Amino acid sequence: MKKQQSGFTLIELIMVIVILGILAAFALPKFADLSSDAKKASLSGLAGSLKSASAIARSSQLAAGVTLGTAVNLDGANVVMVNGYPQALATGGISAAVGIVDTSDYTATGGAAAGGSTVTYQLTGKLSATCQVTYRAATAAADNTAPITAAPVVTITNSGC
């Protein structure tokens, strides 16, 4: 009577382990860098939100026909404006327009009511000048009624994420 064999031989098992080791050596570095990619993607998403919210707030103000410095209401948030765009404020202004109401994801610093002021958003837990998004408010002539001289600028710095 012939005996039926089943399973792997020792050589087959060693070959599978070697192949898995080779695959892991090439795949592991890619997976190790995913946290950096995720941080960069998060900053890019925030920058896009800042640009969109700024444009929506401006459109809302123009549609309402109010003066350039008047606040607008976006989905229940009072967005304080300067020069026809949201102010660069850590609370209120552009932060309210984007909907950043807590600091679990981003830490906002700086900001002022004047045109040309900046507010900086850094990932909470990764406070670094090389991993941040900066919003600079619109600037205009001194009387706040002249045409905008510079629209808001959103800058991403992600070299240290």
TrEMBL record:
Coiled coil: none annotated. InterPro entries: N_methyl_site, Pilin-like. SUPFAM superfamilies: Pili subunits. Keywords: Membrane, Transmembrane, Transmembrane helix. It comes from the Bacteria. Pfam families: N_methyl. The chain crosses the membrane at residues 7-28. This is Prepilin-type N-terminal cleavage/methylation domain-containing protein.
